[in-house]
Here is the input.
Amino acid sequence: MTELGEFLRSRRARLTPADAGLSRPGDRRRVPGLRREELAQLAGVSVTYYTRLEQGQSRNASDAVLDSLARVLLLSDDEQAHMRSLARPARAARRSTRPERVRPAILQLIGTMRDVPALVLGRRTDVLAWNRLGHALIASHLDFAAPSQCATRPNMARLILLDAHTRDLYVHWRRKVEDVVSYLRLASGQHPDDATLTSLIGELCVNSADFASTWARHGVRDCGPGRREFRHPLVGELSLAEEILRLQDDPGQRLVLLTPEPGSTSAERLALLASLHAPAPADCVASPTGSIPVPAPAGSTAAVSAPVPR
Here is the structure.
């Protein structure tokens, strides 16, 4: 069965007949969810056509058909966009083999944020850059210069699923897993030709039962703002608002900012963490070809680690 077929079947299975207004007294079912013929009838298409669509034998679904299926299946906006990506996969483009890089202006921006943990993530959840406080909060057990190593830079999905330190860091770890897996499912539909992304997903399926079971549920959701609770080994529990900004000129890249409520215990603990990880007066930005001195802004305790674009 195709990715589209698996997705449609998973969405059928999560709906009860009552959700679709088909509940009947005494209606007993061997399997949960809507039957194919029920979904086809509600969407206004023939059972034969819908079956062929679910089996991957039809690649010409119209906007009207996709809209009808989305309506009946109660799809969210992210799920509807994912279904369209699967139903109409983009023609494979020739992708550059060069690693994703962060623009100097973005590096300068997060380097001036001395009180706010900041990270730049790529479309595969690679950590492309972080400032001092972002590193101290999320991955103090890793080398600060790790994002500078393009072949071995940290990947947030790997850290969350496979790294014991990161698992202990998130108070609501399973919720974070759901968010990461749902994002990767969305990204895989948008970039079906990305061999590196496909390899990452395969690796996580093999090495993490939690990832494999969550992936099989076909949840789809883009990253969005929320609140994260951390259990940091040095400063204790922190509750931080997570804001995710998409970089318009850098498709697939996201700036993640984590901020405490002003005057809160979390704000005090985050300030303590910043003081514990303050860099030397003259810090630098690491690059694949060596360390390039970049003085920190006056009064700033922050620097960044990321490859410097040529």
Notes: Residues 28 and 297 are 69 Å apart (CA to CA).
